[in-house]
Amino acid sequence: MTAGDLLGQAKAMADKEKKYAKELQDLADQVSHPVLKALIAGIASDSEKHSMFYEAITVLLSSRHPLMSQENLDLIRDAVRRHIEVEAEMVKLTKKWAEETDDPRLKLILMAIHDDEVKHHSLLVSIERHIARAVTLTEQDLWDMIWKDSLWHGAPGG
User: Fold this and answer.
1) Which of 26, 41, 51, 90 is the most exposed place for a label (fewest CB within 10 A)?
2) Do 118 and 149 fall into the same domain?
3) Please, which residues have CB within 8 angstroms of residue 27's CB and are 6 or more apart in sequence?
4) Residue 90 has pLDDT above 70, yes or no
């Protein structure tokens, strides 16, 4: 699949997910059962999130992106690390509660939360390890490119 093909399909999927999210949220608004309402609304929320992901793909494929500053990276890294710890706690807690309950309704919703927490934890770890580092250019990197890594060590044309 070419980037152009993916770009067109990502735009279409963003629209489709938005529409699907609205339909599900409308359904959730009509449901009175608290567990079903929460589950359907949660799926609607996930579809809205997927729409944002597809929109991010379209931006990624169709435009340039600013590099992050070291300060911005540090802010993100610190926040992501804190959230990794919180997600790890929530993974353990929801699994424990789901294993301890005999009520299938509670087990269903707790396992849905648990599955999301596992995904969130994994995604945050991946962000910490890969994405934030891949798009960062520190001031030291810039100076290294100009002086250390350049054939002319900063002088015009050698």
Assistant:
1) 26
2) yes
3) 40, 44
4) yes
Give the separation between CA 135 and CA 146, rounded to whole angstroms.
18
Q: Which two tokens stand for residue 36?
A: 């079903």
107 and 98 in contact (C-beta within 8 Å)? Answer: yes
pLDDT of residue 155 exceeding 70? no
Average pLDDT over residues 73-100: 93
Domain boundary pick from 38, 65, 92: 65
Q: How far is CA 41 from CA 15, 63, 110, 132, in A?
A: 18, 33, 15, 31
* Rounded distance between C-alpha atoms, residue 61 and residue 73, angstroms: 22
Strand partners, 68: 136
- Same domain, yes or no: 129 and 81: yes
Of residues 127 and 25, the one with the higher pLDDT is 25
User: Using one digit for the tens of pLDDT, what is the confidence trace for 8-56?
Assistant: 999 999 999 999 999 999 999 999 999 899 999 999 999 999 999 999 9
Domain hosting 88: range is 67-158
